[in-house]
Amino acid sequence: MNPRDKRKLLGYAGFIAPGLAIYLFIVAYPVIYSIGLSFTDYNPNRGGEWSFVGLLQYKTMFSNPMFWHSLKNNMIVVAVSAFGQIPIGFALAYILYRGLVKGRDFFQSMVFLPQFLSPIVIGILFRKLVGADGPVSRLLQLMSGDPGKQFTLMLKSGTVMLPIAFALLWMYTGFYMVIFLANLQKIDSHVIEAAKIDGASETQIFGRVIVPMLSGTILVTTILAIAGSLKGFDLIFAITTEGLQRNNAMVLPIFMYQTAFQDYTNTMRFAFGSAISNAIVVISVALIGVANAVAKRFNAGEIG
Amino acid sequence: MKTQENHNFRVGTILSYILFLGWTLLTILPLFWMAYSSFKSNEELTRDIYAFPKDLFENVDDEYVVIAPSLNLMMPKEVRSATSEYLIIESTSIAPNRLLMVHYLPKKDLDPHVAQRKTGDKIYVNELPRRLQRQVNRTTIWFNYTSAFRRGALGGKFLNSILYASVSTFLMVFFSLMIGYAVSKFPFKKLSAVVMGLIGVGYLISTNSVIIPLFLMLSNLSLTDTHVGIILVYTAFGIPMSVLLASQFIRGLPDSLIESAEIDGAGMFRAFRSIIIPMTVPVIITISIINALGIWNEFLLVLVLASKEITKSLPVGVYSFSSLTSTQLGWQLAALVIATLPTMLVYFSFNRRITRGVVAGAVKG
Fold first, then answer.
1. B322 touches chain A (CB under 8 A)
2. Which of A291, B228, B302, B346 is the most buried (most CB within 10 A)?
């Protein structure tokens, strides 16, 4: 290696090193740490004494009904994203793309706005909106004429996910709309003109031209929706009050947080919490795998 | 056939307008309610949850009662040291008997017959001299906001949030530009592929999924409850997306620019400083805004890493404030506005740029 190349390599290392070091230390290393931790009985109450316990934490996790309850709620959140936010976002984007409404920029920025508000703030705001004698209850009272009427969906374990689903749609649909709109705008308008000349109807253009061309975008948004829905913490944490209501609406990240940082009597809280964290990652990867497989089958069908 | 199609189109247009206007209203109305209700007293909120604020604004004829100094009062320092020189009055209409809506009037500025009043005597705002009336007026209007700032100690948390968002964003952008420059303009393709692969994995990892090991690691280093620790984590987790956007953008810059600079004798560091940085300004701004907004809104990391008031950020402060003062809806709404207003201002000022940046970051990932 000549001195010039050597100097270049040194410079290269100098540019890479600071960012890569901080990244490896703070982002990459904890991933390995977390995997290791979940196979121990690490005891923070005894100064971090630990021994290897194999799959104990995972066995405890699978036998805990709260895990399955949280998983079920997480699947509801995933479903709201995949079958609510994405199709609605797509529909909204398509309306804007075809110019069915004027003031595209205005509507786009309004629907997209909640994405940038703090989920904690929105959670608290919605908790106030649906609380006892809050604005929503008051609206129900005005509409029904019954002054004692209350909004009770948040109070029952069977219905608590409905208002939460609404809040999720309210916050994140705009994100998918913006992604779809950007990709729709990349479509060559000649393709649509050609389909029209061939006598294709609006529904045919949408179903046979637009959707297939955006299949890649649909896959990417689905992956984002799955990953985002499984790690979502703030909104559900803030929209529920601590105790029964939060337990009813429990999702895996909150279960992990409560286990690791609030259950002080559990000597294996960090190890158990890590097992839950790792489960979240594994489930995300598995669901993303399923989404990929489904997408492949669909694409194969298109070609065949 | 043609008319049928026109008809369909018109129905579609009408439905589309209904959908978008409805959605826009649904987005705006909760925020609008939050904003105007943050200027309502608790009594007003209980009386009518929808009415526009009135009590705090029309306060010229408000009735007050003189109260004795007590330890429960949050007295300003100058009042505490000389309580006998002040007339302490409490509103009888806004949070009465709770020592919340209290004014401290210097006796020397009052009419003698007003200054002489004893504990339990009534006093009206319009009996005060003009200057004090204006002062009472101002404090009454901003009652919810000053209460949120003082009792929730939101001022310090506001500054912490600004510190976290700005310093972490600056460091993250700087490091990412360096990496982006190195991987796209240096002739070490294989090494760069490895670096980008490593960093790409980070795209799948959020602070939420490694919060436990992060907490343990930073505890061991005594970095929990420090600004440095929190900034370090925010910086690191912003690197994957920033590197991706930065390297894409820098790859698009013509090689000839950098080569000509190097022939001129400018070193690679000077090329970075005087060519790469100035030419990447658009992407720098985009990365910065999106990341700063994300950090401003982030919650779990600070909730776990910060147990002392001095390191807490605004969302954590607002959350604990709302659980501690559950009966003071007006204060809580003021706290929510304090946390939301800055992001809304940034969002509406940089709307297009933000939208483009989000699309680039999401689709390429």
1. yes
2. B302
Please state the length of chain B: 365
Judged against a pLDDT cut of 80, whether residue B3 lies above it is answered with: no
pLDDT of residue B365: 40
Residues within 8 A of B (CB atoms), A 17-46 only: 18-20, 22-31, 33-34, 37, 44
Mutate one of B212, B219, B307 to test the A interface: name it (highest A CB count within 10 A): B212
Q: Which residues of A touch B258 (CB under 8 A)?
A: none
Instruction: For A154-187, write each residue's pLDDT tens digit.
Output: 999 999 999 999 999 999 999 999 999 999 998 8
Residue A260, chain B, CB below 8 Å: the answer is yes
Q: Domains along chain A?
A: 54-303 (1.10.3720.10)
Task: Please state the three-class secondary structure of chain A as a single string.
Answer: CCHHHHHHHHHHHHHHHHHHHHHHHHHHHHHHHHHHHCCECCEHHHCCECCECCCHHHHHHHCCHHHHHHHHHHHHHHHHHHHHHHHHHHHHHHHHHCCCCCCHHHHHHHHHHHHHCCHHHHHHHHHHHHCCCCHHHHHHHHHHCCCCCCCCHHHCCCCCHHHHHHHHHHHHHHHHHHHHHHHHCCCCHHHHHHHHHCCCCHHHHHHHHHHHHCHHHHHHHHHHHHHHHHHCCHHHHHHCCCCHHHHHCCCHHHHHHHHHHCCCCCCCHHHHHHHHHHHHHHHHHHHHHHHHHHHHHHHHHHHC
Average pLDDT of B73-93?
A: 89
pLDDT at B6 over 80: no
CB of B16 less than 8 A from some CB of A? yes
Average pLDDT taken over every residue of chain B: 90
User: What does the pLDDT read at residue B357?
Assistant: 87
pLDDT digits (tens, 9 = 90+) for B161-176: 999 999 999 999 999 9
| pLDDT for res A300 | 59
CA–CA–CA angle B206, A174, B201 (5° rounding): 25
Contact A33 B355 (CB under 8 A): no
B237 in contact with chain A, both atoms CB, cutoff 8 A: yes
> What are the boundaries of each domain within chain B?
2-37, 63-141, 154-364
Q: What percent of chain B has pLDDT over 70?
A: 96
Residue of A nearest to B318 (CA): A121
Low-confidence ranges of chain A (pLDDT < 70): 1, 300-304
Tell me if A26 and B214 make a contact (CB, 8 A cut-off): yes
* Contact assignment for B336 to A124 by CB distance below 8 Å: yes
What's the whole-model pTM score? 0.93
CATH architecture of B154-364: Orthogonal Bundle (1.10)
- Mean pLDDT across chain A: 92
With CB atoms and an 8 Å threshold, state whether B213 touches A37: yes
The CB density around residue B177, as the number of other CB atoms within 10 Å, is 25
- Contacting A residues, span 71-90, partner chain B, CB-CB under 8 Å: none
ipTM of the assembly? 0.92
Per residue in A82-111, pLDDT (tens digit) is: 999 999 999 999 999 988 899 999 999 999
